[in-house]
Design brief:
With 257 residues, the protein is an alpha/beta fold. It is built from 10 helices and 9 strands. It has a domain at 6-180: 2-enoyl-CoA Hydratase, Chain A, domain 1. Helix 2 packs antiparallel against helix 9. The radius of gyration is 18 Å and the shape is globular.
Length: 257
C-alpha cells in the first residue's frame, strides 16, 4: 500500500485508525489510490480490536473526485468495476467509518463520504456531485444518496451538479456535524466516547445488521447502473464530448444526443 496514496495513523492502542487519502493535490481517486484504499480496508478487516476508522483527505481538500482520464472509453469499465467494489466494501463494514471533510468533496469523493457511517465537516467544506456537468452521471450516488438525504435532495444534487456549502449539507442531512475547529478532532472525540467503549466484535455484528438490506439493494442496483453507463451513456456523443472538454479545459459543445 503506497504511503503517499494512503497513510494510516493508529490511535487509542489501535482501536481507532486515522486514514488519510492523498497522492495528488486534490486527492484524485485514480486506480492506484482506489487499490490502496481497498488494501487498507482489507488490513482493517484483519484487526480484531479495531472499532472505528476516520477517513480524511491529505492537505486542504477531501477529494476532487475520480480521475476524469479514467472515465474515457477504454478505461471506464475497469474504473467503475474497481471503484464500485471499493464502495460496496465500505458499505459492508468492517468497522464504523467516520468521514472528515475539509475543502472540496466532489464526485467520487462525495460517493466515498456517502458510504461512510457518520460525516464531520469543516465550515469551509463544499460538497457536490458534478458528473452531469461532464455529460455523465454517478452510478453509486444515484443509488445511495437518497438513503442519506432523501429523494428530493438526491435528485437535486445529481441533476444540477451544483455544490452545496457545509451549512446546506448539514440541513439536508448530507453532513452529520458541522465543526468550527478541526473536524478530525470532533470525529475522534465521537469515536472515543461512543465507539471505543464498545465490543469490537459486537460492533461488527451491529454494522452487518443495520446495513444488511442496503448492501443487498446496492449489490443488485449497481450492476444495472453500470450497464446503463457503459452500454448506453458512453455510446452517446455528449458523454465523450463532456469528458474531453473537461480534459481540454474548454466548454463542451453539446449535440444533445
Amino acid at each position: 500500500m503506497p504511503e503517499d496514496k494512503v497513510s494510516i495513523e493508529r490511535l487509542e492502542d489501535g482501536a481507532v485508525w486515522r486514514l488519510a487519502l492523498g497522492g495528488s493535490k486534490g486527492n484524485v481517486l485514480d486506480a492506484e489510490l482506489v487499490r490502496a484504499l481497498d488494501a487498507a480496508l482489507d488490513e482493517a478487516g484483519k484487526a480484531p480490536g479495531l472499532k472505528a476508522i476516520l477517513v480524511e483527505g491529505q492537505g486542504r481538500h477531501f477529494s476532487f473526485g475520480a480521475s476524469v482520464q479514467e472515465h474515457m472509453p477504454g478505461e471506464v469499465a475497469g474504473m467503475l468495476r474497481r471503484f464500485h467494489a471499493l464502495l460496496l466494501r465500505m458499505v459492508d463494514g468492517p468497522v464504523p467509518l467516520l468521514a472528515v471533510v475539509r475543502g472540496q468533496c466532489l464526485g467520487g469523493g462525495l460517493e466515498l463520504v456517502t458510504a461512510c457511517h457518520r460525516v464531520f465537516a469543516a465550515r469551509d467544506a463544499r460538497l457536490g456531485q458534478p458528473e452531469i456537468a461532464l455529460g455523465v452521471f454517478a452510478p453509486f450516488a444515484s443509488a445511495m444518496l437518497a438513503e442519506r438525504v432523501g429523494r428530493g435532495h438526491a435528485e437535486d444534487l445529481c441533476l444540477s451538479g451544483r455544490s452545496v456549502t457545509a451549512e446546506e449539507a448539514l440541513a439536508m442531512g448530507l453532513v452529520d456535524e458541522l465543526c468550527d475547529q478541526d473536524p478530525a478532532e470532533r470525529a475522534l472525540a465521537y469515536a472515543r466516547e461512543h465507539l471505543v467503549p464498545r465490543s469490537a466484535s459486537s460492533l461488527r455484528f451491529a454494522l452487518r445488521a443495520v446495513r444488511s438490506g442496503l448492501k443487498q439493494r446496492l449489490a443488485a442496483e449497481l450492476p444495472m447502473l453500470e450497464r446503463v453507463y457503459l452500454q448506453e451513456l458512453m455510446a452517446t456523443a455528449d458523454a465523450v464530448e463532456g469528458l474531453k472538454a473537461f480534459l481540454e479545459k474548454r466548454a463542451p459543445e453539446w449535440k444533445n444526443a
